[in-house]
Every structure is written in C-alpha cells, then in structure tokens.
UniProtKB/TrEMBL annotation, chain B:
One Pfam family cited in the UniProt record for this chain: COX3
Main localization of the protein described in the UniProt heading: membrane
Cellular localization per UniProt: Cell membrane
Residue ranges annotated for the Heme-copper oxidase subunit III family profile domain, each copy included: 1-199
Segments crossing the lipid bilayer: 28-52, 64-84, 96-113, 133-158, 178-197
Name of the protein described by the UniProt record: Cytochrome C oxidase subunit III
Any GO BP: aerobic electron transport chain
TrEMBL record, chain C:
Coiled coil spans: none
Enzyme class at the top of the EC tree: translocase
Function as written in the Swiss-Prot or TrEMBL entry: Cytochrome c oxidase is the component of the respiratory chain that catalyzes the reduction of oxygen to water. Subunits 1-3 form the functional core of the enzyme complex. CO I is the catalytic subunit of the enzyme. Electrons originating in cytochrome c are transferred via the copper A center of subunit 2 and heme A of subunit 1 to the bimetallic center formed by heme A3 and copper B.
Entry-linked InterPro entries: Cyt_c_oxase-like_su1_dom, Cyt_c_oxase-like_su1_sf, Cyt_C_Oxase_1, Cyt_c_Oxase_su1_BS, Cyt_c_oxidase_su1_bac
GO CC annotation: plasma membrane
Membrane topology qualifier: Multi-pass membrane protein
Example GO biological process: oxidative phosphorylation
Main localization category: membrane
Biochemical pathway: Energy metabolism; oxidative phosphorylation
Designated gene of the protein: ctaD
Xref: PANTHER family: CYTOCHROME BO(3) UBIQUINOL OXIDASE SUBUNIT 1, CYTOCHROME C OXIDASE SUBUNIT 1
Pfam families in the record: COX1
Official protein name in the record: Cytochrome c oxidase subunit 1
Automatic annotation (TrEMBL), chain D:
EC id: 7.1.1.9
Annotated InterPro entries: CcO_II, CcO_II-like_C, Copper_CuA, Cupredoxin, CuRO_CcO_Caa3_II, Cyt_c-like_dom, Cyt_c-like_dom_sf, Cyt_c_oxidase_su2
First-level EC class: translocase
Protein name per its UniProtKB record: cytochrome-c oxidase
Transmembrane segments: 39-62, 83-107
Any one GO molecular function term: oxidoreductase activity
Function, in words: Subunits I and II form the functional core of the enzyme complex. Electrons originating in cytochrome c are transferred via heme a and Cu(A) to the binuclear center formed by heme a3 and Cu(B).
GO BP field: ATP synthesis coupled electron transport
Swiss-Prot/TrEMBL keywords: Copper, Electron transport, Heme, Iron, Membrane, Metal-binding, Oxidoreductase, Respiratory chain, Translocase, Transmembrane, Transmembrane helix, Transport
Lineage: Bacteria, Pseudomonadati, Pseudomonadota, Alphaproteobacteria, Acetobacterales
C-alpha cells in the first residue's frame, strides 16, 4: 500500500521533471516566427503585449536545456561586460530582483531585442529570436528568490557570484575574503 | 547423503565477544570502509594543495581554536569511553548506564563546538576548491560524530529498558565504544590537515 | 509471548528420539521459514530468497541493457543513420554502460554470492541477513530510478564514466548527470552492504573444519571481491558526491579556474573503475575453478597457486588505474610504471589459465553445457587478455584508446571473462536453486549461438578501431568505409541476442517443466550439493564437518555433522577465522519489515537530494526512525543469550 | 574442436583494414610508423601465445580418456610433470611480458623527442569544431583557421593542444597517437609527417551531443605548396566579385552571422564560431560534416540544427535571396 503510493508520488514528481529535460535543438519555423511577433506597442500607440506571447517565454524559463543555452549566450555575448555576472557595473544589476522595465519576460525580451536608453544596445541583429528568449529565460533565474529546478549551476570559471541554483541569489553573495 | 554425528556442540557459549562476535567484525568492516573514505578525502586535499600555486587559496588560514577544543574534547572523551568498554565487558548494568549517559554528553559537546568551527574556516564551500575540500572534510567528520551520537543515544535508551541487561547489549556497548575510538582517531589527521598544512 | 517451558533452549539432540522421523526437519522449517503473504515477502531475510530476487533482477537489467545494445547496433548498421537522435543515442550508450556495470555485472556476482556463499561454507544464513534485504531494496530502487529517468528523457548522457567538465555543472544541463551520480550512490550502498556480509560469513561462519585451505575457490574469489568492493567503492562514492556537490551547491572540486582539477575526477573514478573490472572478473574465475572439477572428475590442480593468483590480482588491480589515462599527458616515468604494473597482472592471470589447463589435462572432460561455457571462456577471455596486454602499453594505447578496439577488448574480457562463466554457473547451479535441470539440448544451442554470435560481433570491432572508428559516436560518414563491417557486426549481434533469448526461454521452461534434479546432479564435491534441491529454509539439517577440500568426494557414504544446535530459535555456528574451530552458537536475526522501510527512506533521501541539498537534512529523520525500528531489541529468543 | 581453426580466419581479417585516411594501420608519419611496428610486434607475440594456449587446451580435450585404473605412481608423475610445465609457462609469461614492456618503453622514448626547428601550431578544441592558430613571431603574419591543418612534409610539427570547454582528444591515426585536450592544462604532440596526402582526424574523447561530428582534415603537402597556402591564408578575405556576392557580404555583416564569425577585411568580427576568412578554400564545412560547395553552404546556413542537431549555430532567418547571396559569397572566400 505504502510502497505503491510512494511509487506513484515519485512517478508524478519525475513526470513534472519531464518537460524540464527535453532538448529541442530546433524550433519548428512557424513557432520560431511566432516567437518573434512581440511588439512594443501592439495597438500602435500603447497597450500590453498579448498574454500568449508571454506564455511562449515559459518554455524557455522552465527547461534546463534552454536555460543553459541562455547562460552560454550571456557569456558569449559579453553581457558581463556591463552587467558583471549580474551584480551590476556600468549596466544595472540583474540579480537583485529589481527590473527597471518590469520583471515580466516580455519586457526583458524587448530590452534585449530593441535595446534601452542610456547604453543598452539592441541585439536584434546579433541574436535570433529564439536565442533572445533563451537569454530572457536565463536572466529571470538570476534574480529569482527561489531557484527553479531547471536552473543552471556554477560555471567552470572564476567564481564571481553564487551559482544560479542557489537562491535567493543576493543572500549568498558575499564578497570574497582577501588573503 | 547420510549423516553421522561426530561432535555435540551443546556446550558452546551462546554469545561471543570480540572476534567471536559478528557485530564486532561488522563494525570493523564499516570502519574500514569509512576509513578509506577519510583517506580518500585527505588524499584529495593533499592533491589539490600540491597543484595549487599557493595554499590556502585566497583565504587566511583557518582559525584553530574551535578545532583544537574539539580535539581536546574528543581526546578526553576517550577516557570515559574506555571505562564504558570495561564496564560493558564486566556486564555491570548500572555503570554502563552511567557511562553511556556520559558518552552521550561527550558526543554532543564537540557537535556544539563544531557550530563555531565551520565559520572559523574563513572560507566558504563555494569560494574555491580549497574551501570545498575543507567543508567536505569537516562535514564528513561531523556526520560521523552525529551518527555515533545517535547510536549512543539509542543504546542508552535501550539500556534503561528491560532489554538492557543482556550480553548482546553489552556487546553493542563495546562495539559502540570501539567505533567512538575510530571517530576520535580520524579527527587527528583531519585536524592536522585543516589547521597544520595551511601554516606550513 | 510465553512459550512452553520445554521450548527453552531446545536442541536438535532432543528431537532424536526416533519417534517421528522428520521431527527435526519440521521444527527447523518452522523456525527458519518465510510465511506466505506480501508483508512476509517484504520482510524475509532468507539469503536464498533475497539472492534469487537479486539474480532475477540483475538478469532483467541485463535484458534491458541488451535491448539498448541492439538499438545502438541498429543505429550503427549504416552510415549517418537517423534512427536515433544524437541526444537519445548518448543516453542509450551511457545507460547501456552504467546499467551493465552497476546494475548487472557487479550485482549479479554479489547476488550469486548471497545465494551460494552460505551453502558453500555450510551455514544456515548469511551474516547480517537484514543488511542483505536492505541492500536488495536499495539496489532495486536505484536501478528503477535510472530507468524511469531514461523513460522521462532524463537519462544520463555523459557516458558511464561521467568525465568532468562534460558532466559538470556548466556543460551538462538539467538533472541527467545527477541521476547518474545518485545511481552510483544507490548501487554502492548496496554493494558495500553485501561485501560486509560476505566477508563476515566467510571469515566466521564456515562449517567446522573448513580451514583456509579447504575453502572452495569460488568462495575465496568472493572474499577477495568483497574486500575489493570495500577498498574500491568508496573512491567512486567520493567522486560522485563531489560531482553532485559541484553541480548542486557550487563547490569547485573540478573547476580549474578556482583551484580544482579535471584529472582529479579521472584519478578517483579509475581508482575505482579498474578494480571494478576485477570485482566482476574474479568471482567468474572462481566459478570456473569450482565448476571445473565436476566436469573433469578430479580436484582442481594447483589450489594454492590459484588462491595466490586471486589475491595477487586483487592487490595488483589497485595499481593500474592510470592506464585509463595514458593520453592525458601525465609524466612519462609514471606512465611507464603503470605499463609495467598493468602487464604484470598477466602473470597471475596466466597462472590461473595454466592451472585450469593442467586440471583438464589430468582429468576426463565431460562435455556438458557448463563445460562448454568454460571452453567458450578460454577462447574468448584469453584473446581479450592478449588485447589487454596491448592496451597496457602506453604508446600502443595512444592509438587504440577510445576506439572500437577498446570496445572489443573489454567486451572480450567482460563477456568472455565474466558472462560466459556466469551463464555456465547458472546452468550448473540452476538445479540447486530450483530443483530442476535446465535443458542440455537448448543449452548447447545457447552456448553455440552466444559463442559464435559474440565473436563475430566483437572481433571485427578490433579492426574497426584500428581503422580509426572512435567510440561513442552516433553516426559516421559513409566515406570512412566502416559501413560494411558495421553492418556485418549488427547482423551478427542478432545471433547473440537470439542466444540470450533462448537462454531466457530455457530458464522459464526449465523452472516449470525441467527434469527433477536430485540433490547432486553433477556429482560435485562441494557442500551445497549435500543438501536437498532446492535447499530448505535452514539450508542444512545439521551443520556439516569438513575434512578436505572436496568434502563430498572424500567422505564416501556418509557426511560427518555436528549436533547440539538449538531448534527453538534461529541458531548457527561461529567458527574461528583460520581453521574453523567452533567458537559460539550464535543466533541469526528473524524476518523484519524494517530493512524495507529503511531502504524506502534511503531512496527518498537520495532521490530528493538530486533536487535540493536540504533533502539530506529532512530525509535523515525518517531514515533514523527506520534504523531505530530495525535495531531496537524485540525480546525474541534470537535476542537471548 | 573447430575452436582451434577459427583463429586463422580471424587473422586474415585485419589485412583487409590496412589502408585508409584515418587508420592506424596505414602510417604516414614518424610516430605512427613507430607505433605500427610496435603494434605488429605485440599482435604477433600475443597471437602466438593465444594460439599456444588453445592448442594445449585442444590437446587436453583430445586425450580425454585416461583409463580409470591408472596407477597412483603414474598419476603422481603426471601431476609432477604438470607442475613443472606450469612453472615453465609462468616463467615464459614473465619473459614475454618483460620484453614487451621494454619494447613499449623504448617506443615511448623515441616518440617524445622534441625538435627545436619544429613548426608550432596551436589547436584548440571547441564543442564541436577545431580552431587552428598558426603563430608567427610577426603578429600580422599569424592567422586563425578552423577544421583544417596544413603541414609541410618532412618537417617536425609541434602541436600545442588546448580546449575552450570540455575534454577533447586530438587523433590523426595515420600520423601519431592521440593526445587529450584538457581544461586547465596544455598538452603537446610532436611528430613528423612523412608522406604528402590528406588525412582525417576525429575527436576521440566523448565531448557531448555532436562528438560524432568533430573531424579535422590534415593536408600534408610539399614545403613550397605549404608556403603558398600559408601566404594565401595570411591575406585578408577576397573581395566580392559579383553583385550577388556583394549582397552576400552585406548579409554577413548586417545579420547575426558577424556576431559569431570573423571574415578578416570586413565588419564581421565575431570570435565565437570558426574564422571564415578563407572558408571557401577548405575541404569541408561544419567540422567535416559536408564538403564545401555553394549548395552545402546554403543547406547548412538554412538549417544547421537539422544537419548537425544540437550544435551551437542558430538558425538565422534569411530570405531565399539572402541565403543565395551569402552562400555565394562564402564559397568565393578561397
């Protein structure tokens, strides 16, 4: 009795993990196209992007493979040049949970794609839409107060911030004692 | 096949101590396994130290006081431990009870001091490899104190029940004492490694 | 619970009145039996029931791993095949390797030991039988975890060796590598538990008179295996724990930028990984040494050299790990040392081969199925040993390392050196386990199909490797010219699969309809044949006394036994380590459900700690409770002394 | 027993595998030649030992009768003889093993020799391609290329092997044994190519999802040809010749391509993917996946994840014209 109930529980827990591990290297072209259909002002003057668009970002936030791709891009495209591994330098901090343009994925997506005043360059010509979504997903895990199970871990590099799976990030971020 | 009886073993004792006891051998085997675990952890420590440009890496040497206090407490606890072993051998229920209570306290004390020992390492487990191996060494040893204390507490509780006055329980008390020596002894090389090597 | 007073310290001598002929048997059966019912089945501590479960489970994993192998062969049958995606293929070869090593080969050798060591040394149950029950459940849960993860696309895809940094936090996203690392923890816990049981059983529970020079060779082999498990497995547990800590809490053991080291992983892994091969191989050669006399009708030639060879191989195998790292650029001098030590192990291996050859030479071989497997072993294993000498040479290894040459080599050694003897041993001991013979006719087909199928599948891989085909590739370009031979290999692998299929069919058939075997169908010489087939729950009505290394051959007519053991409680004999003089009449634990609960608590803790380090803290609470439940005295007669 | 006859069959098989452009049995370099000799020494010795063991086994099975009524003395004598035979066999094993160990030690010593005038090239493994740097004392004469190595015949080469991510292993079986590329370490491989030709190398250490498609071409050529190639590589990218190619260059610079790839002499200066300055002159693209043609370039750019699933090149959305143009341009970059 107990064993079967336990097995069921474990099974369900694992089933939830299922989607997190899927590795989709190639989005179907129509989906990829749809994912680019994010407009700053959907009705021409103002307005919020449709919820469906935001929901598309979910696939990138809860999937371990996509998050690790986002992390790779963060490094490859030198985001730390301004944001210093999320701690903030000439660009704003990315791991304190405070987002200048709002914490929703669409805002983050737009910040990367179209750039923002005072120095954030647009990346629409450097990254594909899929990659921008991957980066968005990764950035959301940076400031999370509880770590997602799909979250990435530390890099094989100098240690400059706590691993992403150690949330809340800010709490564990102590300066290194000097020798 | 037909049997022919060649000996009557009715006269054999019903429980043996030391090398005639299975649990003694089991304890020994566990100590061997865990001892190898400790040796490997120490080997990893020395390996990392040998490839590092300087040691300790990016941190001041650990503050030695809590570790030294623990070493002293552990070494001192060897005395009541030895007594418990002897009393158990003599099957003296009252003294074994008292001894086990003392040993429970003697086990909990170093655990309390250990709360201050982790910060005294002056490095976090996720700062660098030096911090990682330090935390693992200390964590590994703490786990051993913890399990032995749990074992001692349960055994103490058993001793105060009707199951206490039994040769088997005295054997358990002896094996528990044997294991505590192991916990004390393993601390010494770890202590030397953690606090001595960075100061070489 | 009150018992009639005459039950207190009732001994077998009291039942010898002759009024009821089988009073003793019935009494013993009542004390040692496992009653029917699910709870009782989960509570049993009978080494035969646990051993049988262990063997069956290991063979189920063998079959599953074989399915993966066939998938790989299907994929590689033609160049640039798209049958499996690279992501899936990487999981498939990783799980094939991890499954075969950790869930089949090592456990099946332990499983055979759990079943047969007590019978071979003449005792009533294994030492610490509850630990055995716990070990089985942990093994079952850990193995299931790996396969469930695979079904859920969470299967490890980093190779069975999980080299960092590929398996590390940066390059292996998700929980796949953690599943691998925790599967290691599961299987090592269970292996270490069994190792302790074997060591104590062999050292302290041998039948009176079974001095060190009368121990059956397979028991020696299991003893060496158990010690090797104790010495080697902590290394891989250390390594996998460090990996999981690196991934989960951000430690830096393998991060070169923060003082860690990538090769540290390889040192630790192979310090375990090389002895691992011998952990699998030594019991298999022990089985040969024990089976051979029954088929050549004479005692083994060179008992002492064979024991020494086992011990030497066990010892030397700890000095060879670097030969898995010859291409990593370690200092030349060290590499030469490891070349020499790797080759030196050929000497004890040779001693064994020569002793067996002499035994066959001096005897009169009977070509029964187990003997056919021994012959297949000779052909295959010696060839694998020869390629082993080749890969032990540093310069040669730089050409063949990580190619199909090595794939061929270790399949020759592991299938030829361990699986063939194991299958022979199954044919040999099946009658003891079930009371029924396996089919001689089907057995010949099985042996033939496996022998031919195996050699035609794996021999060409040597050539493929020399032609440049590297390991662990899901596809290869047509222009490489490997297509033809790969197709040949894939076709021949079907013969091998058919051999295994036939073997399983024979098992199922014989278990129900096989010819009744009798106590000693092979007229063999060791103690397990002195009792009925299948053995009763108490193994032996009376504990036998051993006067030679081949007790059943040298004691014509009747078996010397001892009397005086209690029959009102589970009692067995503790004897001296050296010459097995009786020391104590010790009790053996009763059935208990707690090991099962403890295994569940352990599994919950281990699986949850893949996801959060805090699981170690809260998971320890139920574990502690179950352990207290396990060890808390019950006031049963077994608790008396 | 036919077990004794089978080995001969098997012995014939390896002869079939004596040639190939990625084969250890077809040595074309100093190290590979040395190893090839050693390989046959080991193979012949081991085969002889294996054959001897099986012959003894066959003989033991053949004489299987042994009359039951054999005398004690006879039995004891044959046991004694067996003991002596075992002793002799063990002694022979020790001698053979020692000899082979010594031979392999000598070979190791011969291989590791360094040459002061060696051509030094740095090869760096990436998930799943190779970066090749021809260093030069004059910085402007140093250049980067990818997935193709050109070597002058007869001159010793010193390869400095490193990795940018996980462990890879560099292996050109026709020229030398393999050497791993390990994070945090640098390994060196020294050998001398002896015969001109094109050889193939492949990553030998499992390195992730596309480990199977991480190949490298090694072109060994006459020193004059090598120098000509080298000068061509040092030069900047060829200018576009047709309007279509000009459009291709613009796509290269304005779309995401330039963020990862460099074409020297244009605005494309990314350093994350292979250097494409002379991509049209290389034999293959995508680390040995496809031959370099305009068509395969277009196929690769249009859908890299179908050609090589899981690799790090994204599918950049391009119109048909843009795709045509950019592949025409890249094919032109010889």
């Amino acid at each position: 009795m107990m064993a079967s109930r336990f097995a069921l529980l474990a099974f369900l827990a694992l089933l939830a993990g299922c989607k997190r591990e899927e590795r989709e290297a190639r989005l179907a072209p129509p989906i990829a196209e749809a994912q680019g259909a994010v407009l700053v002002m959907p009705n021409g003057i103002s307005g919020r992007p449709h919820d469906v668009i935001a929901a598309q970002g979910d696939a990138f936030r809860n999937n371990a493979y996509q998050l690790s791709q986002g992390k790779r891009l963060f490094e490859w495209f030198n985001c730390q040049g301004c944001h210093a591994d999320g701690g903030g330098a000439s660009g704003p901090a990315l791991m304190n949970g405070w987002w200048r343009y709002g914490p929703d994925p669409v805002s983050i997506f737009l910040s990367i794609r179209d750039g923002r005043p005072n120095g954030m360059p647009p990346y629409r010509d450097k990254l594909t839409t899929e990659q921008i979504w991957q980066l968005t997903g990764y950035l959301q895990t940076l400031g999370a107060s509880t770590a997602s199970l799909a979250s990435t871990s530390r890099n094989d590099a100098m240690h400059s911030r706590p691993a992403e799976n150690r949330a809340p990030a800010q709490a564990g971020h102590t300066t290194r004692p000097s020798p | 096949m037909k049997h022919r009886i060649v000996a009557d073993l009715s006269g054999l004792p019903l429980h043996g101590a030391g090398s005639s006891s299975q649990t003694w051998w089991g304890t020994l085997a566990f100590m061997l396994i865990e001892g190898i675990g400790f040796v490997l952890a120490l080997a990893v420590y020395l390996y990392l130290a040998s490839i590092a440009p300087q040691w300790p890496l990016g941190a001041p040497p650990p503050d030695p006081w809590p570790g030294t206090i623990i070493a002293a407490l552990l070494l001192l606890s060897a005395i009541p431990n030895w007594l418990v072993g002897r009393w158990a051998e003599a099957q003296d229920l009252r003294k074994v009870r008292i001894g086990l209570v003392i040993m429970s306290v003697a086990g909990i004390l170093p655990l309390i001091v250990r709360i201050w020992e982790f910060p005294a390492l002056n490095v976090s487990w996720d700062s660098n490899a030096y911090g990682s191996i330090l935390w693992i060494l200390l964590g590994l040893h703490t786990a051993h104190i913890l399990t032995d204390v749990m074992d001692t507490l349960v055994l103490t509780a058993v001793m105060f029940t009707r199951h206490g006055d039994n040769k088997r329980r005295y054997g358990d008390a002896q094996d528990n004492a044997l294991y505590w020596y192991f916990v004390v002894l393993t601390w010494l090389p770890i202590y030397l490694c953690i606090y001595g090597v960075p100061r070489l | 619970m009150t018992r009639p007073p005459e039950d207190r310290d009732l001994r077998d001598t009291a039942l010898d009145t002759g009024q009821e002929p089988d009073a003793l048997e019935r009494r013993l059966a009542r004390i040692w039996r496992t009653p029917p019912g699910l709870v009782n089945a989960l509570s049993t501590v009978d080494h035969k029931i646990i051993g049988r479960r262990y063997i069956v489970t290991a063979f189920v994993f063998l079959a599953l791993g074989g399915v993966l192998a066939m998938l790989m062969r299907l994929q590689l049958a033609q160049p640039e095949s798209r049958f499996l995606s690279p992501d899936l293929y990487n999981q498939v070869f990783t799980i094939h390797g991890a499954n075969m090593m950790f869930l089949f080969a090592v456990p099946v050798m332990e499983a055979m030991a759990i079943y047969f060591v007590p019978l071979l040394v003449g005792t009533r149950n294994i030492a610490f039988p509850r630990l055995g029950a716990f070990s089985y459940w942990v093994y079952l849960f850990g193995g299931s975890m790996l396969w469930i993860a695979f079904i859920l696309q969470m299967g490890p895809d980093v190779g069975w060796f999980a080299y960092v940094p590929l398996a590390g936090p940066q390059y292996s996203s998700g929980k796949r590598a953690d599943i691998w690392a925790q599967m290691i923890t599961f299987t090592e816990i269970s292996a270490l538990a069994v190792a302790i049981e074997i060591v104590v059983t062999v050292l302290k529970q041998r039948a009176p008179g079974m001095s060190l020079d009368r121990i059956p060779l397979v028991v020696w082999a299991w003893l060496v295996m158990a010690f090797m498990i104790i010495m080697a497995m902590p290394a891989v547990v250390t390594a996998s724990s460090m990996l999981i800590l690196d991934r989960l809490v951000g430690t830096h053991f393998f991060n070169p930028a923060e003082g860690g080291d990538v090769l540290l992983w390889q040192h630790l892994f192979w310090f375990f990984g090389h002895p691992e091969v011998y952990i699998i191989f030594l019991p298999a050669v022990g089985m040969i040494s024990t089976m051979l006399p029954a088929f050549v009708r004479r005692p083994i030639f060179g008992y002492l050299p064979l024991v020494m060879a086992l011990l030497t191989m066990g010892l030397l195998s700890f000095g060879l790990w670097v030969h898995h790292m010859f291409t990593t650029g370690l200092p030349r001098l060290g590499e030469s040392f490891f070349t020499a030590s790797s080759m030196a192990i050929a000497v004890p291996a040779g001693v064994q081969i020569f002793c067996w050859l002499a035994t066959i030479w001096l005897g009169r071989p009977a070509f029964r199925v187990p003997f056919l497997f021994i012959l297949a072993f000779f052909f295959t294993f010696v060839l694998g040993g020869m390629t082993g000498v080749m890969v032990a040479s540093v310069p040669l290894d730089t050409q063949v390392h990580d190619t199909y040459f090595v794939v061929a080599h270790f399949h020759y050694v592991l299938v030829g050196g361990a699986v063939f003897p194991l299958l022979g041993a199954i044919y040999y001991w099946f009658p003891k386990i079930t009371g029924r013979m396996m089919s001689e006719r089907i057995g010949r087909w099985v042996a033939g199909l496996l022998f031919l199928g195996f050699n035609f599948t794996f021999f060409p891989m040597h050539i493929l490797g020399l032609q440049g085909m590297t390991r662990r590739i899901y596809a290869y370009p047509a222009e490489m010219g490997w297509g033809g031979m790969n197709l040949f290999v894939s076709l021949c692998s079907v013969a091998m699969a058919a051999g295994f299929l036939l073997f399983f069919i024979d098992i199922f058939r014989s278990a129900r309809h096989g010819e009744p075997a009798g106590d000693n169908p092979w007229e063999a010489s060791t103690l397990e044949w002195a009792t009925s087939s299948p053995p009763p729950p108490y193994n032996f009505v009376r504990i036998p006394v051993v006067t030679s290394a081949s007790p059943l051959w040298d004691e014509k007519g009747s078996l010397p036994v001892v009397s005086g053991l209690a029959v009102n409680r589970r009692e067995l004999l503790i004897t001296g380590m050296g010459n097995a003089t009786p020391e104590v009449r010790e009790t053996s634990p009763q059935n208990s459900i707690w090991p099962f609960f403890a295994a569940i608590a352990t599994s919950v803790m281990l699986v949850a700690s893949i996801f959060t380090p805090w699981a170690v803290v809260w998971g320890a609470i139920p574990l502690t409770i179950t352990l207290i439940g396990w060890f808390w005295p019950r006031g049963t007669p077994e608790d008396d002394s | 027993m036919n077990t004794a006859r089978l080995p001969h069959l098997f012995l014939l098989l390896p002869l079939a595998g004596c040639s190939g452009w990625q084969s250890a049995l077809d040595p074309r370099g100093s190290t590979a030649e040395e190893l090839h000799g050693l390989f046959w020494l080991f193979t012949i010795t081991c085969t002889a030992v294996w054959g001897a063991v099986l012959l003894v086994l066959a003989a033991a099975l053949w004489r299987r009768r042994h009359p039951a009524g054999i005398s004690e003395a006879q039995q004891a004598r044959s046991e004694r003889r067996s003991g002596v035979a075992i002793g002799a066999a063990v002694a022979a094993t020790v001698v053979i093993i020692t000899g082979l160990t010594f031979a392999s030690y000598l070979a190791t010593r011969g291989i590791a020799e360094e040459h002061p005038e060696a051509l030094t090239i740095r090869v760096r493994g990436y998930q799943w391609w190779w970066e090749v740097l021809y260093a030069d004392s004059a910085p402007h004469r140093a250049f980067l290329t990818a997935n193709e190595l050109h070597l002058p015949v007869g001159r010793p080469v010193r390869l400095e092997l490193a990795t940018a991510d996980v462990i890879h292993s560099f292996w050109v079986p026709n020229l030398a044994g393999k050497q791993d590329m390990i994070p945090g370490r640098e390994n060196v491989l020294v050998f001398t190519p002896r015969e001109p030709g094109t050889y193939r190398a492949q990553c030998a250490e499992f390195c992730g999802i596309q480990h199977a498609h991480m190949a490298l071409r090694i072109v060994v050529e006459a020193p004059a040809d090598f120098e000509r190639w080298r000068e061509a590589q040092i030069a900047e990218a060829a200018p576009p010749m047709t309007p279509e190619e000009e459009a291709g260059r613009q796509v290269m610079e304005s779309k995401a391509c330039g963020a990862c790839h460099t074409v020297r002499g244009t605005a494309a200066a990314g350093t994350l993917g292979p250097d494409l300055t002379h991509v049209g002159g290389r034999q293959t693209i995508a680390a040995g996946m496809l031959p370099t043609t305009r068509g395969s370039l277009a196929a690769w750019i249009a859908d890299p994840q179908t050609v090589k699933p899981g690799n790090n090149m994204p599918m950049v959305p391009l119109t048909a014209e843009e795709l045509q143009a950019v592949s025409a341009y890249l094919a032109r970059l010889r």
